[in-house]
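Problem statement: downstream parser choked on a complex file, so we are re-checking the raw output for the pyridoxal-5'-phosphate run. The parser issue turned out to be on our end (a line-ending mismatch), but while we're here, posting the original submission so the record is complete.
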Amino acid sequence: MAQQDPEDYPIWGYAPWNQFRDPLAAFVGCTRDEIALVRNATEANSYIANGVDLKPGDEVLMTDQEHPGGEQPWQLKAKRYGIAVKKITLPKPVQNTAQVLNLFSDAITPRTRVIFFSHITTVTGVVLPAKELCGLARSKGILSAVDGAHVPGMMKLNLHDLGCDMYSSSPHKWLQSTKGSGFLYVRDEVIDRLWNTIATEGWNEPKLRAERFQRIGSSNIPALWGLRASLEFANQIGMDRIEKRHCQQADYIHGEMVKRHAESWTSPDPALRCAIATVNVPPIHIGELEKWMWTKHKIRIRGGEPYKIRLSTPYYLRRADMDRFLEKFDEYRKEKKINA
Ligand SMILES: Cc1ncc(COP(=O)(O)O)c(C=O)c1O
């Protein structure tokens, strides 16, 4: 990083960072003024929960599959200010869009002020029908806030088309960006309704638009260089190709697991799944399987107790990598005398 002028760097706390916001805004389909560069989805979700005005008894509706970095900012607000957090239970697997819409629609009350949900959930990887849910919220005058931690880099994303009021993300996940390069999106019409959580010069200047949310004091510019590089890389390959391969890979490994009598927790609707396939494999305990795969074969898998395996298939995985996992999975079952 060249430093022509002593003031260039590291005087970095209060810049618009348009050289990073512009390519990101183009990638996610919004304007630069609607984007604040923050550290990660947890920070963006906290900004959202802290920033909207809610009164005691007002309700926030979410799913039972939220990540702590999405749910807990609302739980904090509930404990501190007496709002109510209500949850719908997502079926495993989710069958279709109408099922999700009905669950949300039935749970809305006259006190519902915000609908918050993961675009792709951490628990099963289901891709929720975000556009339809945001449309439902808008039709009832309810704010929509979407946790999109997993989305950029996994699937194509156009925030204006999605129609959400707020969106958070962590491109260090599927875009393989640097850690600490997250973002908060706030639809232009909603920006003036959101309070700052961190306040310094500019917090009360509406003309800064979403830039006021990224004024957090001295910050980490090298992480943003990483973000821009990861955007360029994904654009070179093309998100169409990436998304297509993600779906093909997850469908392959999911199909192979079902052949092995795994119970599918992955939606049968292709629109509601992408690069995360989740299966339930009783009586195999995930903790033991994870340990065996890693210590014996250096294969890293993740899941959830007691029997859930969450298989992520980023595009750089090869068929041979997935087949090696499947072969070792069969070996494990044989060794443990499990004839599922
Ligand atoms: C849906 C979802 N939201 C939020 C997070 C938190 O991400 P971060 O730690 O980057 O803030 C995760 C992490 O896995 C997640 O899956």
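For whoever reads this later: The pocket of pyridoxal-5'-phosphate is lined by residues 40-42, 67, 69-70, 118, 122, 147, 149-150, 170 (CB under 6 Å).
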